[in-house]
Amino acid sequence: MKYGAKAQVWLYRRTGGRIGGKWRIGSGFRKPVPVLLLGHRGRKSATEYTTPLIYLLDGDNVIVVASQGGMPKNPQWYSNLMASPDTWLQIGPERRDVQARTADAVERARLWPLLVKRYADFANYQAWTDREIPVVVLSRR
To answer: Which of 24, 56, 95, 122 has the most CB atoms in a 10 Å sphere around its CB?
Structure first.
């Protein structure tokens, strides 16, 4: 998975998202979903990382999900963002500076059904774990 993500990031960057810009696995096989690149800095190492993620546009905000495939712990990128929320994302060829925050309960209740509609496997991931999967709001800064 780690090497697949690195290859996807490499292709996405070099093609402006034409290759690597759609997720075609799981429920995305028949209905591919859009992918962005999210930058984050390691909270311990200060190393720059880039993670490809499924996203949803919500007005001026971009929404991502810290699902980690329903694993018991949140993904590292989520912990990194919460420690250092000022970051960047890339959608297609466009790169923008954003600030990350976890959606509050009201926002999550509104956004979660839209995210599941976008990528049905999110519902499975939530069923597989005891943690509430965080929904992350990325706002322009």
So the answer is: 122
